[in-house]
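Below sits my pick:
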Amino acid sequence: MARALIPILFLVSLALVTSLEPWFQSWQGNRAQSADLIAVLLGDARRAFANHFFIKADAYFHSGYYPSIFDNRTAFQTPHMAADAGAKEDKNSGDEDNFLGPPKDWIDAFGRRFKPATHTHLDQGGAHTQSQSAASKEIELSESQDVREILPWLRASAALDPQMIETYTTTAYWLRQRMGKVAEAESFLRDGLRANPDSHEILFELGRIADEHRKDPTRARNLWELALTKWQKFELTKKAPDTFSLLQIASHLALLAERESRWDECLQYLGLWKAASPQPDEIEKRITEVRQKIPAANHAKPQTPNPKR
């Protein structure tokens, strides 16, 4: 009986192959159509790995002094390297220096001597300078060999999940602002823009490179205006729009317009800045200051804050 089943199983297998092969070749997940071996092997799980690598980069940024799932994480809700880069809104609170709490016993106290137990950042020298004075801790990022080690983690995160926007914006900040690699930062952002053509965050960062490093205000303005257009198109439909990005885009457009004495535009963007700011009274003071700079014949009221324009 068993021998008789073998030819039957062979014929069933052959039938399955002939029916599944055309479907496999036309399937978008077919490995023959994908040049990314990592994506093929991991599938949708790569997003979880991408986030894991991003957090690993932040842990490395802290020289290993990082809370586990059993510790108080209120001071680490937003990765510090992303918050410092302005890539994500800083939602951290609590005591980042003492999340471990007091030692539970003498064994715990003794064990802390053999692992990172002090809050440090690699751009301030990391754990190697925790015993030095505050002045000596401030070093250039490009001078720290340790800091460069966060970049492979971030690049791996981007390779695993190209739609994780903060990976591109965070990496670009460290490359351009702290390591002086502006061209490399711009290239990395453009890779991200190809994968995410509607990303207002990446367009905003490209605008910062044009303004701060290329000294090209016209290009910066065009990029930021496009970022604002993308924000209006995709964020206004959400229940909780990304007001942090709106604040960044509007504030930079307002400051650029003020530098160029484009007063009507400046007041318009100040209105958007005020609408997105957690401190609208401070922006109102700035609006008053700008209005005082305008010739009396050209006074204009700021438009009603409306992200839709």
Remarks:
- The two ends are 78 Å apart (CA to CA).
- Confidence is low (pLDDT under 50) at residues 125-144.
